[in-house]
Amino acid sequence: RARLKELKIKLRENLDELEAQLFECVGQKFNPRSPQQVSEILYQKLSLPRPRSKTATATDEECLEYNRGRHEVIPLMQDYRGEHKNYSTYVVGLEKDIWDDERVHASYLLHGAVSRTSCKDPNVQNMPREGPIKSMFIAPEGWEIFWPDFSQHEFRMVAIYSGDEWLKEVFNTDRSLHKEMAHDVYGPDYSDEDYVHTKNINFGLLFGRGAYSLSLQMKCSVREAQEKIDEFYTRMPKVRPWQDEIIAAVFQGEDLISLLGRYRRFGLITHENIKHVSNEVMNFYPQSTGSDTVLVAGARVHTSGLYDASWMRPIAFVHDAIGYYVKKGNRERLPKIIAELERIPQEVLNTDVRMKVEAKIGDSWATLKDL
């Protein structure tokens, strides 16, 4: 609680400083938390353009990213919003969720409309990847945080469902999908920017992002983005037909049932929601099966002969990762835990696609290092 209070004061000071920089940058005071006032600054005072798909007053992240490089106020506004979210959502939110033992105890929701587990009070699955918030989560004295994360897990689910041989080969020879795709598309001397673009496109294909959305992120034309999407699909020839097949099945009124028996039903499909439904259909199998296999792996390790609560305790499920407290001096036991976590999903799904766990360990969630 004391650490959180210190961070709250620091973030408030950062926000005050960013506000002063924003006012100086545009030559007037305004409320950076008011979409209307931000819209007036961006589009009337500074005459900046907006993406064609946005309304006249839109000021969301896509609009800011669209104008990044056109005016120095844009990165300042992005920094302000990020810092304010840290302050209002995470720090202030965490304050009310701290128990008397100085820790938080999230509640997990196993069933819902979405295809993966969620949690609340607090939502530890939504903590920012970067920044100071994770430094608030620390292990008790004499313990450390062990964090096994299933690598590219949802893409492995796509390989299982689609039966794509190229994807299977990549995973079964212990290679990275993103690195392999970047090598094939951009050549062996691909840049860091090429790698980032590759990851964006791979996840875009998984979650149904269109060429226009990707073009904004990649800062290229819609045509170039679509060409890249098509090129990626040619390297995974069974993925697009599989996606088309399950979308068509839902449009014909069928329910989706995962390999582990999770159902997903869709209501009335209209012209207004058809794109959203299509994206949810594509998300369902990899997300639900990925999430459920992580839960099953965690549960079975817990009941295996490898687990002992005297030195190891589960603390969180965060998407494709499981967090544990491990008593210091027990690191030599962890490779067997990792091997068991990798084995269980493959056995449960009866698949030849190998799983991979990348594990980190450290005194806090923010300071985890490779095991």
From TrEMBL:
Q: What Pfam families has UniProt attached to this entry?
A: DNA_pol_A
Q: Name one GO molecular function term.
A: DNA-directed DNA polymerase activity
One Gene Ontology term of the biological-process aspect is: double-strand break repair
Instruction: Output the SMART domains linked to this UniProt entry.
Output: POLAc
All copies of domain DNA-directed DNA polymerase family A palm, residue ranges: 130-330
- InterPro entries, alphabetized: DNA-dir_DNA_pol_A_palm_dom, DNA/RNA_pol_sf, DNA_polymerase_A
Q: How is this protein named in the record?
A: DNA-directed DNA polymerase family A palm domain-containing protein
Species of provenance = marine sediment metagenome
